[in-house]
Amino acid sequence: xxxxxxxxxxxxxxxxxxxxxxxxxxxxxxxxxxxxxxxxxxxxxxxxxxxxxxxxxxxxxxxxxxxxxxxxxxxxxxxxxx
Length: 82
Known about the structure:
The protein is α+β, with helices and mostly antiparallel strands. Helix content is about 20%, strand content about 40%. The protein is built from one helix and five strands.
C-alpha cells in the first residue's frame, strides 16, 4: 500500500524543502513539482521523499483526521489495556 503524507512547507532551498507534519520535519524534494509555484506555508502530499501534489489547508486537515481515525481503529496501534 502506498501512502502520501500531507506536510506543510517550512522553508525552500532550490528544489528541496523542509516540511513538517505533526511535529516531525523532513527534507522533501520539490523536483517533481518544479512547474508549480510552491511557497512557504503551502501544503503538499509527500510520497517517498517527493512532493507530488499541492493541497489546501482544509484537504491536509481532512487527510490527517482520516489517518488519525485509522490509527485509532487499528488494534496494533492502541496502547495495551492495563
